[in-house]
Amino acid sequence: MQQKTITVVIDENGNSSVDLEGFAGQGCEKVLKDFQGGDRAKVERKKAAFYNNQARPAQGRLHSGGK
User: Fold this and answer.
1) What is the DSSP pairing of strand 58-64 with strand 43-46?
2) C-alpha angle 42-44-47 in degrees, rounded to nearest 5
3) CB count, 10 Å around CB of 22?
4) pLDDT per position as a tens digit, 19-29
5) Which DSSP symbol is given to 2?
6) Which one is predicted more confidently, 4 or 66?
7) Would you report the helix, strand and coil content of the chain in percent, each value rounded to 5?
8) Helices (H), 24-67
9) Is residue 11 over pLDDT 90?
10) How much is the pTM?
11) Other Cβ atoms closer than 10 A to 44
12) How far apart are the C-alpha atoms of 3 and 36, rounded to whole Å?
């Protein structure tokens, strides 16, 4: 089983990003939604691996702005 990694970074201005690795398809989106909660993303980018092969684990990145 492939290792799953979630990286959350919050900068000094309160902007945050979530980087997901090792998650596949709907699983990736569910984990991302769980982290978002009621917040909205300013930018949502799917990594190249998401588009290259849907059978492979997807990788995604979410950025949200601070106050």
Assistant:
1) antiparallel
2) 155
3) 15
4) 888 877 777 88
5) -
6) 4
7) 25, 35, 35
8) 25-36, 48-52
9) yes
10) 0.62
11) 15
12) 22
